[in-house]
Amino acid sequence: MGGADKPTLPVGGQSMLTRVLAAVHDADPRIVVGPVPPDLPVPVHSTREQPLGGGPVAATAAGLALVPDDITYTALLAADLPLLTGEAIDVLRLTVESSPMQGAVYRDAEGRRQMLCGVWRTAALRGAVTRLLEERGDLHGASVRELMEFLRVAEVSWRRPGPPPWFDCDTDDDLRTAEEWAR
Questions:
Q1: Which residues form the MobA-like NTP transferase domain (predicted)?
Q2: Nearest C-alpha neighbor of 129 from the set 149, 112, 113, 114
Q3: What is the DSSP letter of 27?
Q4: Tell me, what DSSP letter sits at residue 41?
Q5: Are 9 and 182 in contact (CB under 8 A)?
Q6: Strands 31-33 and 45-47
Q7: What is d(CA 34, CA 31) in angstroms, rounded to the nearest whole number?
Q8: Which residues pair with 154 in a beta bridge?
Q9: Are 122 and 72 a contacting pair, CB within 8 Å?
Q10: Are 32 and 24 in contact (CB under 8 A)?
Q11: CA 51/CA 168 separation, integer angstroms
Q12: CB-count burial class (<10 Å; 0-12, 13-18, 19+) for 2
């Protein structure tokens, strides 16, 4: 995408990051791991993974460091999910609340887990990060799949009309598709 800061790209008149944060409008705190634009319309706490560019697991650890211990559930979301909705988050949260699993993620039509579109029991997610860190020695470059090996996850199918909430924008074509769906 030409080196653009993807989360700041607009879809339907709002940045993708703003749209993701709107899907978790009732979350407190809302934490962004990465740069935060000065014109972001909602308050967030921000942090960065160390070293920078450490990947999604290192970013997860950095974000979890800002989550208070008394928070029961944590939504772990990519910042380029412009079609994510509060309803989609509620489905995941209710799935976790009503099951013995440690988290819930969407499973796409091809059977792939959408691991950066999930809701987790915060303590379990923290424990998995700690175990992976102990196993690897550091989190730099660790894959989300490695992290998921330490978690029991419910897979949820999206059966509602319209675009899937986990649709991410990795290409200009994806951005155009999201813009069409957002109309």
A1: 1-137
A2: 149
A3: -
A4: S
A5: no
A6: parallel
A7: 9
A8: 104
A9: yes
A10: no
A11: 25
A12: exposed
pLDDT in tens, 35-65: 999 989 899 999 999 889 999 999 999 999 9
Cβ–Cβ under 8 Å, residues 106 and 164: yes
Per-residue pLDDT band at 2 (split at 50, 70, 90): low
pLDDT in tens, 56-96: 999 999 999 999 999 999 999 999 999 999 999 999 999 99
Strands 73-77 and 113-121: antiparallel
Contacts of 111 (CB under 8 A, 6+ apart): none
pLDDT at 139 over 90: yes
What are the structure tokens assigned to 152, written together?
């029991």
Q: In what order do the strands lie in the sheet with 113-121?
A: 73-77, 113-121, 103-107, 153-156
Task: Give Cβ neighbours of residue 170 (< 8 Å, ≥ 6 apart).
Answer: 1, 6, 80
Q: Is 113 helix (H, G, I), strand (E, B) or coil?
A: strand
- Give the side-chain half-sphere CA count within 13 A for 98: 7
Burial class, 48, CB count within 10 angstroms (exposed 0-12 / middle 13-18 / buried 19+): middle
What counts of helices (H) and strands (E) characterise the chain? 6, 8
DSSP 132: H
Q: Which two tokens stand for residue 144?
A: 């989300």
- Using DSSP, state whether 173 is helix, strand or coil: helix
